[in-house]
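thought: user wants a sequence for this fold. calling inverse folding tool.
action: design(structure=
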């Protein structure tokens, strides 16, 4: 592990100033605060802000040596100290990347072009989980919702129903299996891949390994499993799974919605990279988004962040960002192992609007806690029903304004009187109709849902997470918390198969191993 030196956040000189300015900063509905970044508009007008707060941000970032850490991110420096690695996903979208990245990008594009030209593989089954799954799902849902000549299915879960559904009804002769796993040891992925291999063999496919491609940072393991080298695409250990869409992991998206989508995603992300590198702090969208989120969580105590995505094609953006934020920032110690005594990552959750309005917006408006909301919407529609899009926009803007302004008991009372209620009824009902308001939100507007715009949006959130990790003093590029459960599962799997039960298990676990063993 690389030796690092960091001051705990609560001991920084600039931290009390930051907290105080957040708590004293107004939510000013008459102050317009827009940032243009890589074609997106980020409206932070309904987040707390003041000139003193902006000054406190600069002091906090200076004390955290932000400029040097940002340069290290883009230069391939060690940004993941617990694993002694860079976190160099930005290199994957450079127009002129380093030679090994350029070569692998060329191989992916050539594979897509060749198979398209030959009209080969009418079915794609993408087997991966977590970061090897969500980005591809997002891209194909966003740009393939109207259908493509290839059918794509996803298999992630170890539940046997997942692989059964993934293969059901497909012609094995027309099916390509994509195995996407960084380590090529991921338990769920490798078990599902084995079932796919058995399915091909049962169909008497003469050379089933020609029906597989692997995308991995461990090509030797893929080759040992039987996949020919020309069907193995590489990415690197400095690419975290949740940042891997920009790598060869996107090959299934290229096969389904086109290599131009991959290129557009990379171009949009690169444009946001350049904005993040060069824009001054007060007009830097990732920095300002990050600091508003940090203020809401660590200074104001909000426990969650809601994502209200007003475009049904972006439904998979929600789990994508859940993984990006909570796997990166769900930490309780800093990079030296010291406890972080302020709240870190909020719970990230959501649903596409307007469905969300009929599901949990009641809680957002009148619940005792509430949550900041990121509203995401496209200015222009891609369908022929303009009145649908107009209503969608109206709902988005109205919900945001209602969260900000709320409704006083007096306003509710007046409305009740106008509706014909007598004074006693109007007063009683007004208590139920009042809304506190004052709840922060951000509005992110894409001009239209294009690969470029989506790439810029994903990079915006990546850099937001990076900034928050710096301020909290944690490592956003490791995920040790998920490892313990994986290790325990291996032992319990053996015990469910008849091996002696570990006496260290708690009584409930022992009971259920005995009850459920096969």
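)
observation: tool returned 518 residues.
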């Amino acid at each position: 592990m690389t030796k690092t030196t960091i001051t705990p956040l609560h001991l920084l000189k600039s931290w009390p100033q930051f907290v105080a300015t957040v708590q004293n900063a107004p939510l000013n509905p008459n102050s317009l605060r827009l940032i243009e970044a890589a074609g997106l508009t980020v409206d932070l007008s309904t987040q707390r802000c003041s000139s003193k707060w902006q000054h406190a941000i600069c002091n906090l970032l200076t004390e955290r040596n932000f400029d040097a850490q940002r340069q290290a991110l883009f230069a391939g420096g060690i940004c993941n100290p617990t694993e002694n690695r860079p976190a160099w996903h930005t290199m994957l979208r450079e127009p002129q990347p380093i030679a090994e990245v350029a070569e692998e990008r060329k191989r992916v594009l050539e594979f897509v072009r060749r198979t398209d030209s030959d009209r080969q593989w009418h079915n794609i089954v993408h087997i991966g989980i977590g970061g090897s799954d969500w980005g591809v799902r997002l891209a194909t849902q966003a740009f393939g919702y109207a259908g493509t000549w290839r059918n794509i299915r996803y298999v992630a879960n170890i539940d046997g129903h997942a692989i059964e559904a993934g293969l059901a009804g497909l012609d094995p002769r027309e099916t390509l299996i994509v195995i996407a796993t960084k380590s090529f040891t991921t338990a769920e992925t490798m078990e599902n891949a084995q079932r796919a291999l058995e399915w091909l063999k049962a169909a008497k496919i003469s050379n089933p390994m020609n029906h597989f491609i692997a995308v991995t940072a461990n090509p030797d393991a893929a080759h040992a499993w039987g996949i020919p080298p020309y069907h193995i695409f590489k990415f690197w250990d400095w690419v975290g799974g949740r940042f891997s869409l920009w790598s060869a992991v996107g090959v299934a998206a290229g096969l389904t919605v086109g290599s131009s989508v991959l290129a557009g995603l990379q171009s949009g992300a690169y444009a946001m990279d350049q904005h993040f590198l060069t824009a001054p702090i007060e007009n830097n969208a990732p920095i300002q988004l990050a600091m508003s989120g940090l203020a809401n969580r660590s200074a104001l105590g909000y426990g969650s962040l809601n994502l209200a995505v007003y475009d049904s094609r972006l439904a998979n953006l929600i789990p994508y960002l859940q993984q990006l934020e909570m796997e990166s920032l769900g930490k309780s110690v800093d990079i030296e192992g010291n406890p972080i005594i302020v709240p870190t990552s909020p719970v990230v959750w959501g649903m596409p609007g307007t469905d969300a309005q009929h599901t949990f917006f009641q809680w957002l408006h009148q619940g005792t806690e509430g949550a900041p909301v990121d509203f995401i919407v496209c200015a222009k529609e891609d369908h022929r029903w303009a009145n649908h899009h107009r209503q969608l926009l109206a709902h988005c803007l109205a919900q945001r304004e209602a969260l900000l302004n709320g409704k006083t008991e007096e306003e509710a009372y007046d409305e009740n009187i106008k509706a014909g209620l007598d004074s006693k009824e109007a007063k009683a009902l007004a208590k139920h109709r009042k809304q506190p308001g004052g709840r922060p939100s951000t509005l992110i507007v894409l001009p239209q849902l294009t690969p470029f715009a989506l790439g810029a949006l994903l990079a915006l959130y990546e850099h937001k997470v990076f900034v928050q990790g710096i301020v909290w003093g944690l490592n956003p590029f490791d995920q040790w918390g998920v490892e313990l459960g994986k290790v325990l599962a291996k032992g319990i799997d053996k015990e469910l198969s008849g091996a002696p039960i570990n006496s260290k298990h708690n009584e409930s676990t022992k009971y259920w191993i005995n009850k459920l063993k096969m």
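thought: summarizing for user.
answer: Here is the designed sequence. The CA atoms of residues 198 and 419 lie 68 Å apart.
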